[in-house]
Each structure stands twice: as C-alpha cells, then as structure tokens.
Design brief:
By secondary structure, the chain is an alpha/beta fold. 30% of the residues lie in helices and 23% in strands. It is built from 14 helices and 23 strands. A hairpin with an 8-residue loop joins strand 8 (142-145) and strand 9.
C-alpha cells in the first residue's frame, strides 16, 4: 500500500481460505507496561504491540526515568521497576491520542509524590477524563489545569492520601476503574474503590487477571467495592502478551462475507480479551468455531448469514466490525448497549450511521442501540474521523463491493500500522 491519503479496497473476486497473524494486544501491552514499571525488579515482555499508542506509553515511561530497553524486531520490552517509585520527581509526558496511556499514566502520576506535566493530542483533549480526575482529587492529588478544567493539559502529583475510599463513575469508560486498580498498590491495602455507572466489565476483568499474574490480587467486597487482597506489590516477571483479538476480529468477520475459513494464529477462546465474544456473535449469525492447537478456525455459514440482536456492552470495540458486515445479513441487525462508544476516538455511533448512509444502507440510532437493515452497499468514500477502528472495520465492505475508498488509512498506526498490507496479503 502506498502512503496515500486514501486507500481503495479491491473487491475479492476469487475468495480463498485465510490464515494470518495479528500484532500483540494493545490492551494487554499497555497494562503490562504499567504493571512492569510498578513492579520491583526487571520484567521482560514478549509479543509486545508496536504502534502509535504503545510507543507513546513507552516514551512516557522513559521520560519518567524508567530504564527501558525496546527491541521491535524481537517484539520485546525490558523494564526495570522500582516497587512503585518513579525515578524522576519531575517530568513532562505526552500521551498522544492513546486513551489507555492517558488514563493509566494519569492515575500513576496522580498517586505519586512528584509533579508531572501531562499533554496530549487535540483528539485526546476531547475525550472523557473528568471522572478519573475528580476521583484523584478527592483521594489527594493536586492538579493544575492549563486550559479547560478536567481536560488535558495539566500538571499532577504531590499526592497525600486523604481518604480510605473513593467512588468512580465508569459510564463513559471502564479505563477509569482499571487505572485506579492497577495503581492501587500505591494506596493503603484496605483502600476501597466503589464503582457506579453501567459499562461492560470485560476490560476490568482483564485488568484484575493481569494484576493477579504479577502477584497482586483484587477482591470485591459484599458492598461491591474493590480492594487489594494482599499487602505486597507487583513481582517482576517474564510475560507473554496475547495476539490482539480486537484486530483478529476483522479477519474473522471475512469468513461469513467471503464464505471462507479463517484462522488467526495463536488466538484461543480462553484468552484474556473480552472481544473474543465477537466470535460467538459470528456463531449466532451462522458460522462455526473449531478450536485448533494453533488457533481458532472460523467456518462460514452453510446456508444463510443471519441477522439478530446482540448486546455488545462488554466488547463494544466490535460494534464497528458488526456494523460493517450487518448489511450482508439476511435480516435486521440490532447492536445494543453501545452508547459509551460515542466518547471514544470519535463518536463511533455517528461514524456508523453516517458511513452506512453514504453506502445507501439504513442505520437507525435509538438511544444506546443501533439498528441496521440489510441491503447492497454502494461505492463511497469512508470518513474515518481519524479513528483506526473505523478505517479497519469499513475496509471489510470493500471486499464485497467495488468503489469503497478509505480516507486517511494511516490512522491505523494507532494499533495496527500495517493493517492494509496484511489485508491485501491474505485476501488477494
């Protein structure tokens, strides 16, 4: 693929079975980076994702003074942690458009003694941060805002614990809770974190399982609050990062479209990532799953590709993927409980409705749900809104229809920088 401002997806004329690999999980990579920095000793992370988001996270840790060795060719990162201490008492960190880095590093620095200036891209300035910042202020963080209150940029730190519990609202992002949980090793053991709001908890479950893998257990009390089970901090270790299931889903979604078998190497149904539930959506739509030693094999429907209603609250990154393949189903597709995706890299519900309308497909937004009617998409230029998942998801339509053009294809650098090259390699 050239470095063009647009990319035209070519319709697949001779479909064939697909076997491919995807990069490491962004969600696991960024959690592992932070946990390793908080651990005591040297950790080696294998299968690391190298993308805009993860590079911003690694650069931030370097700017904070952590000894970090990066080997992109071997997909490894070696980090020396200091048991919760940050080497540099003052620093400036830039998180780009990486929501995970923005929330996770804000919690780390907000619960630390130094003073740290945090900056970001224009896109990240518009994304939700207030709920986390309010909680940190209540606990004892000092925060000085440079522009709009409760938004980037700001200076944070000088932490002194003033409370034994805090309430965090996760309506707009479960990352607020994950951020506090990971950095809870900087708080007293019995500190309580209460959650309010309605959000899929798959990523919080991932956070808790990873914390346990590094030696820190979390429990929920009878009142529903979270607290650490043990007094000790994280233990440095070697850690293998799973393939990115969010990325794998784009290829699995090709199975019912192209009527081919698809395998993504080393993806398994017992993985940490909530997006694995999307594979079960494909099963409900007529596909079949075969768990093989080297990865899950998706078998296309023998008959019709079925519509239906699906609750995506716990794996909402796949709303765009489902929206892209929904027009090819035999009946209406309803995606339920996805209101919070309005607050991600872009308003993803708006991106779904507008782009499908350009293709001549009816998509109806009703509160937190979107209904998509079947039809034959027509050629159009897909507006990506600088959102990597919009670009990758709607490329699927182009494998079935001539004239689907993706604007700003380079936005996939955020999580999967060579996505279009991999797509070309496996489908043509």
């Amino acid at each position: 693929m050239s470095n063009s401002d647009i990319y035209e997806v070519k319709k697949v004329e001779q479909p064939h079975d697909i076997e491919t690999c995807v990069p490491g999980s962004k969600s696991i990579t960024n959690r592992a980076l932070l946990i390793a920095a908080l651990a005591e000793g040297t950790s080696v992370l294998h299968g690391v994702l190298y993308s805009d988001d993860s590079r911003h996270f690694m650069q931030a840790l370097y700017d904070l003074g952590f000894p970090i060795h990066i080997d992109e060719e071997e997909e490894t990162v070696t980090i020396e942690g200091f048991g919760g201490e940050i080497p540099n008492e003052e620093a400036e960190v830039y998180v780009g458009s990486a929501g995970t880095a923005a929330r996770f590093l804000t919690a780390l620095l907000g619960l630390s003694k130094g003073r740290y200036r945090m900056t970001c891209s224009e896109q990240m300035k518009k994304r939700p941060m207030k709920e986390l910042l309010v909680a940190l202020e209540e606990i004892g963080s000092q925060i000085e805002y440079e522009e709009e209150e409760y938004c980037f940029p700001f200076t944070i730190g000088n932490f002194e614990c003033k409370k034994s519990k805090v309430t965090i609202d996760v309506d707009k992002s479960s990352q607020f809770l994950s951020a506090l949980l990971i950095s809870s090793v900087l708080l007293p053991q019995n500190f309580m974190i209460k959650m309010v709001g309605n959000h899929g908890m798959a990523y919080v479950s991932m956070t808790m399982r990873m914390m346990q893998q590094f030696g820190v257990g979390v429990e929920r009390t009878l009142t529903g609050a979270y607290r650490r089970r043990n007094e000790n901090g994280y233990e440095a270790r070697e850690y293998v990062i799973e393939p990115d299931v969010s990325a794998a889903c784009y290829f699995y979604a090709l199975s019912p479209l192209l009527r081919v078998k698809v395998k993504v190497k080393n993806v398994h149904m017992d993985c940490l990532q909530g997006d694995i539930k999307f594979l079960k959506v494909l099963v409900r739509m007529g596909c079949k799953i075969e768990e093989e030693e080297d990865g899950v094999l998706m078998v296309p429907p023998k008959d019709k590709f079925l519509g239906g209603s699906f609750d995506l609250s716990s794996f909402s990154d796949q709303a765009l993927t489902l929206a892209a393949i929904a027009p090819f189903a035999n009946s209406k597709v309803c995606m339920m409980n996805i209101g919070h995706i309005r607050y991600q890299e872009c308003n993803r519900i708006d991106a779904i409705v507008k782009n499908l309308a350009k293709m001549g497909i009816a998509a109806i937004e009703q509160k937190d749900n979107v209904f998509i009617l079947p039809g034959t998409p027509t050629a159009c230029e897909v507006e990506t809104f600088e959102d990597h998942r919009v670009a990758m998801a709607f490329s699927l339509v182009g494998t079935m229809v001539d004239g689907i053009v993706i604007e700003n294809p380079g936005c996939t650098r955020k999580t999967f920088e060579n996505y279009f090259e991999v797509l070309e390699k496996v489908i043509y």
